Structures are given as structure tokens and as C-alpha cells.
């Protein structure tokens, strides 16, 4: 059996000017052995803001697409925790204006556990690239105590240095994106890796799927044999959650005449949590594999519209000028798959900051996902991925 790997990866960059430095890093990440549970109520605001920021990008193209709220939240949390004057930036990212460090550390810790062959690992790394935006060693040590590692690299070696770090710490195989800006910079990496297998041989049968009106294809599916499941529907959509092992995949199927763009997938998920009922469900769920890249510059820039945040004030030496550091660009690359083995995926986000001026009476339903749908990958109700699938065969 091949490994099922669910990887989420985020990178945030600050850019200045200069040349090279030497390589070293300090810090460690949480190494929990038992499974850690997240209480969604503690992180609902973070999940909501991240989902609302990213879901619109699913519709930039007509084809399959996906995004990673969890990866995005880790990346933003890393910046918030290392910066000053962050109250506005933090609240616009879903964090508390006063307890953001506690929330971020709790999220990072909650996304680190191992249970038999299943695991969920995350790490955050600050990387100084070039000498001009120099880290203070004492500040680096303090951040290391918060499970956040830091590294000093040259322009020639930064990519290999970061790659080796994540391979060593969480066995990340994903190739990190190369940075195109040649100036000195600070990169904040947030990485998440999930392994989640079915504990049984999952069914794999061919069923019909309508990619558009009148066009039918045959796709591989997970058969829903008659069994009790939590289910919710309204006049716009029907929804159902499929357990993998430690995580879930949540499906949202539009009713006839309703378009995907008319449904907010995260709000649909919250409605499911509060209104789902236990019913006997039959039907099928398509297996799918989706890859994409989205430009997420706009929502990140809006978080610092007042230009008050002092980026990396808690890492930089006191004589480093950070007044003109600001968000320049952001991108996220994703790869997510639901298969008979379980779930696997990869996500990479790059944000560049430059120096510039209760159950009810049971009933029976059929839930045949035979047309375009949403699918959310969840851990303890926190969205790891949100996918829009128009054609599972691609």
C-alpha cells in the first residue's frame, strides 16, 4: 500500500535588500504521541476567516479547484506571533486581538499527533535570507520556546535549507516554491502533513456523474450501503459527512437548479453541525484528485490596510528598519485526493512582504453525488481543505 499523505504548506516572505549569510537554525516542533483533539469553538473564528478569504478563489476557473484554510491559518498565525502592533491584522485573520499567541500555539499543538499509522504533523519556520533583515539571536531562542524554529540562510542555499528542515522534522516531500525576488527577505513557512487511512477495504465501484447537463461520464465511487449517518438538507443542497479514520470528508451536493457558486461551503458545514439528523443513507461518493494554484494576494494585503503592523518585530535586531515592510503577494498551490485508501494531499502558500514605500426521528435518504459538488477535508471539525469538484475523472 502506498502512503496516503495529506500535506499542507504555507510560506510568507518579507523582502529587503542585500546579499548572503551563513546557515543555522534553532528550535523544535511539538512531538505529541497521542492524538490531540481540537475544540472547534476555540478556533471557529480562525476557520471562518480563512475559509471566507479562500473560497472565492475556487471560482476563478471552471474546473476542479481546492484551497487550504488550515495552511493559510498557520501561515498568518506565524506572522502574527512574530510581529508587533498586530491587533487589527490578527482580528482580520480570525485571531483574538489579545490572546492570539495562545490561540496560535494551541492550533499548532493541536495539529500535531500520531496514532498508529495515522498522523497529523505541523511546523512553522522563520527563515532569514541574506544579512540585511537580521534576526536577533536572543529573540530567536525565545520564539523557539514557542515551538517555532528559525533559520539563517544565503540566497544560494535557502531553498535546499528549508527543504531539508521540513523533510527532517515532518517528512515533507513537497518541493518548496523558489522565490523570484532577489532581495534580502524573511520567509515564514507553515507546514502540515496528514496521513489518514481507511481501517477497512473501501468499496470502489463505477457510477454515473453528470459533468454538465446532458453529459454523463462513469467515475469510481465509494458506495454508501444502507447505514445510519448524519445528514442535512435544505432547499439549496444536501450534505453528508464520510469518516475516513481520524478525519472526515464532508460532501455538499446542490439541488437541481442550484449552482455551486450560490452555496457557501463553510456556512453549509456550520449548518450541518447544528442541524444534521441521523438517517439511513444509501448512494455513492465520487473519488477525486484535484490540483491547482491560486493567487491570494488581495485578502492578505487587506489585513494590513492601516499599515500599522511591524512585521517580525519579535525576531529582528533592534537596529533593523522594518517600517516599510508590507505585503506584496501571496499564492497557494494545492494537491488533494480522496481515494479507496483514504485522503492525501499537498498545499503550498507563498505570501511575499516587501520593503517599499441533536438527532431526530430517523428517515431514509439517497445521497448520490452525480453532479458537481463541494468536499471539505476536516479534522475535529476544522477545515483542512475545501474543494470544488466539477469533474472527478480529471
Question: How would you describe the overall organization of this protein?
Answer:
The chain is an alpha+beta fold and 394 residues long. It folds into two domains: 258 residues, Antithrombin, subunit I, domain 2 (Antithrombin, Chain I, domain 2, 2-Layer Sandwich), CATH 3.30.497; 114 residues, Alpha-1-antitrypsin, domain 1 (Roll), CATH 2.30.39.10. Helix content is 21%, strand content 40%. It is built from eight helices and 18 strands. The strands form two sheets. Strands 1, 2, 4, 5, 6, 7, 13, 14 and 15 form a nine-stranded mixed beta sheet that branches. Strands 3, 8, 9, 10, 11, 12, 16, 17 and 18 form a nine-stranded mixed beta sheet that branches. Strand 8 and strand 9 form a beta hairpin. Helix 2 packs across helix 4. The longest helix has 15 residues. The radius of gyration is 21 Å and the shape is elongated. The N terminus is likely disordered.
In terms of topology, how is this protein built?
Blueprint: E1 6-15, E2 24-26, H1 40-54, E3 65-67, H2 69-82, H3 87-91, H4 100-110, E4 113-115, E5 118-129, H5 137-144, E6 148-153, H6 158-170, E7 185-197, E8 205-212, E9 215-233, E10 237-243, E11 248-254, H7 265-275, E12 277-286, E13 288-295, H8 297-303, E14 325-339, E15 342-355, E16 364-368, E17 373-379, E18 382-389
Parallel strand pairs: 1-15, 5-6, 12-16
Antiparallel strand pairs: 1-7, 2-6, 3-18, 4-5, 5-7, 7-15, 8-9, 9-10, 9-12, 10-11, 11-17, 13-14, 14-15, 17-18
Helix pairs in contact: 1-2, 2-4
